[in-house]
Amino acid sequence: MNMKIKRLFWILLLALVPGSVLAAGSMPTAIRIGTLYASTGPFSSPSMSQFHGLQFWAKQVNSQGGVFVKRYGKRIPVKLIAYDDQSKTS
After folding, report:
1. Domain membership flag for residue 44
2. Within 10 A of 5 (CB to CB), how many other CB atoms are there?
């Protein structure tokens, strides 16, 4: 089941990135990607490993100059916008 959650996460992420770039009229300085994670509580173990994986991915992408956006003909860096929900469901 954990693999299904990861796969769904990446599918949603890849679906949202192009839409967020194309919605802007002028060229963005960064592609902002929002994420939730839990640093404490019952969900912290899987959440933190996935969050660190996302940070690693962003670092690797940015080390190559960012994500290539065909519309602008150049690479745009990725910026993670993270919120720690501390395993609170409300």
Report:
1. yes
2. 11
AA identity, residue 30: A
d(CA 53, CA 82): 13
Specify the number of domains making up the chain: 1
Identify the burial level of 84 via C-beta atoms within 10 angstroms of its C-beta, where 0-12 means exposed, 13-18 middle and 19 or more buried: middle
pLDDT tens across the length of the chain (90 residues): 566 677 767 776 666 666 555 554 688 999 999 998 888 888 888 888 899 999 999 999 999 999 999 999 999 999 999 898 888 887
| Token pair in block for residue 2 | 């954990």
Cα first-last separation, the chain: 23
Distance from chain centroid for Cα 44: 18
